[in-house]
């Protein structure tokens, strides 16, 4: 992993502890050299690692106290990196109600604004690493979504919103109706990380009313403020059909069914069945997979088939995989989520092959030693026979 370049520089491809030390450079030509350069000390730095991580979730009550523990060390195990706490939504820590002792933080007199995700950051000269923790307050529902906006076509309206509270497992339900209608209808947003929804099969040039409801493990939160938006008019009036089902304007495409992932030969293959509702409106399928537990989107693919070969999965990782049906009106409906752990096949294979090679080498060494020992014994016996 060390390369000598023609310009006189020394390149380290993958730095490790063996590269630390004292270096000097000595130039030569046909007349000789004027001596080496001054000594250069190379110090290999590594990111810190956590010796104590905070719990993922702390559940408390209003007015309670939360203490979150965190500690880290440099890779040599002796030096302590700088440890700081932040709130991941960008807001400040509660003034006058928190204290930090070493890497531990204590927050007293908990109020509603204290809930959220916190980060313990360990920093040294090489890098900064973060461990997350979340404070949840019992019997306090999530805040209402806000800042609703929209755009429309003649038969659909897309609304977007800002989350009232950032949490990984919030779910959203869209309530909508004609502005003058008494009955509300609902649409659940299947992707927990999408902050928009498209309602299709609406009537042209009509005003619709929307509200967004969020949910968490403690139940329903608050509704957003009511938001009204018009669909665009068409150039002609559609003929009225008295026999038309009144629910038809609210029909959507169904979800892909029986979604699963299996290892077939050397590949992971995702398979599913088409939706039962709105199959004639299907445009294509969207497959997405996230790395857990941070639920980070790792890949996305589009296909018109009911199967897909997953070729971009890293070993020794847990994934959540889901397939969505996309309609011609840009409405998506998601299948069940499937969790998949990718076993470290390559690593185990390399270790197995290495073990076999080491074993063969040891057998070869033992065989050689036995052969040399037998040869020596035979030579000694021959020497004794010659003396006799």
Describe this structure in words.
- GO terms for molecular function: cell-cell adhesion mediator activity.
- This is Ig-like domain-containing protein.
- Keywords: Immunoglobulin domain, Membrane, Transmembrane, Transmembrane helix.
- Residues 48-136 form the Ig-like domain.
- It comes from Anopheles melas.
- This protein has one helix at 345-387; strands spanning 2-4, 10-12, 21-23, 40-42, 49-52, 57-60, 66-68, 71-73, 82-87, 98-101, 104-107, 116-123, 128-137, 146-152, 157-162, 171-178, 185-189, 196-199, 207-216, 219-223, 227-230, 257-264, 267-273, 282-292, 296-303, 307-310, 317-327, 332-334, 338-342.
- With 388 residues, the chain is mainly beta.
- Helices cover 11% and strands 42% of the residues.
- The protein folds into five domains: 2-42, no CATH class; 49-137, Immunoglobulins (Immunoglobulin-like), CATH 2.60.40; 146-231, Sandwich (Immunoglobulin-like), CATH 2.60.40; 260-343, Sandwich (Immunoglobulin-like), CATH 2.60.40.10; 347-379.
- Strands 16, 17, 19, 20 and 21 form a five-stranded antiparallel β-sheet that branches.
- Residues 236-251 have low confidence and may be disordered.
Helix-strand layout with pairing:
Blueprint: E1 2-4, E2 10-12, E3 21-23, E4 40-42, E5 49-52, E6 57-60, E7 66-68, E8 71-73, E9 82-87, E10 98-101, E11 104-107, E12 116-123, E13 128-137, E14 146-152, E15 157-162, E16 171-178, E17 185-189, E18 196-199, E19 207-216, E20 219-223, E21 227-230, E22 257-264, E23 267-273, E24 282-292, E25 296-303, E26 307-310, E27 317-327, E28 332-334, E29 338-342, H1 345-387
GO biological process, one term: dendrite self-avoidance
Pfam families: fn3 (PF00041), Ig_3 (PF13927)
GO molecular function, one term: cell-cell adhesion mediator activity
């Amino acid at each position: 992993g060390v390369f000598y370049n023609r310009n006189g520089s020394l390149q380290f491809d993958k730095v490790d502890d063996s590269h630390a030390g004292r270096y000097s450079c000595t130039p030569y030509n046909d007349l000789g050299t004027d001596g080496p350069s001054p000594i250069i000390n190379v110090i290999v730095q590594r990111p810190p690692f956590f010796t104590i991580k905070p719990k993922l979730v702390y559940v408390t009550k209003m007015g309670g106290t939360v203490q979150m523990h965190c500690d880290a060390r440099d890779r040599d195990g002796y030096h302590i990196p700088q440890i700081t706490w932040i709130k991941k939504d960008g807001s400040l820590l509660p003034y006058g109600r928190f204290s930090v002792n070493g890497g531990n933080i204590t927050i007293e007199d908990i109020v509603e604004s204290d809930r959220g995700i916190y980060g313990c950051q360990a920093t040294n000269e090489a890098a900064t690493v973060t461990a997350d923790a979340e404070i949840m307050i019992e019997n306090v529902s999530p805040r209402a979504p806000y800042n609703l906006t929209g755009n429309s076509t003649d038969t659909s309206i897309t609304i977007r919103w800002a989350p009232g509270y950032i949490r990984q497992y919030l779910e959203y339900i869209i309530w909508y109706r004609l502005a003058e209608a008494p009955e509300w209808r609902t649409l659940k947003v299947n992707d927990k990380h999408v902050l928009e929804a498209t309602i299709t099969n609406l009537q042209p040039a009509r005003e619709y009313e929307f509200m967004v409801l969020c949910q968490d493990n403690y139940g329903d939160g608050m509704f957003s403020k009511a938001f009204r938006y018009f669909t665009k008019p068409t150039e002609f009036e559609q003929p009225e059909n008295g026999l038309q089902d009144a629910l038809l304007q609210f029909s959507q495409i169904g979800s892909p069914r029986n979604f699963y992932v299996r290892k077939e030969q050397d590949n992971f293959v995702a398979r599913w069945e088409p939706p039962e509702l709105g199959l004639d409106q299907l445009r294509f399928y969207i497959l997405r997979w996230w790395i857990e537990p941070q639920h980070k989107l790792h890949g996305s693919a589009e296909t018109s088939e009911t199967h897909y070969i997953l070729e971009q999965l890293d070993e020794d990782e847990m994934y959540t995989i889901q397939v969505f049906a996309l309609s011609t009106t840009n409405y998506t409906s998601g299948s069940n989520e499937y969790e998949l752990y990718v076993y470290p096949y390559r690593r185990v294979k390399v270790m197995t092959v290495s073990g076999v090679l080491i074993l063969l080498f040891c057998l070869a060494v033992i065989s050689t030693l036995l052969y040399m020992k037998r040869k020596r014994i035979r030579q000694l016996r021959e020497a004794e026979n010659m003396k006799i």
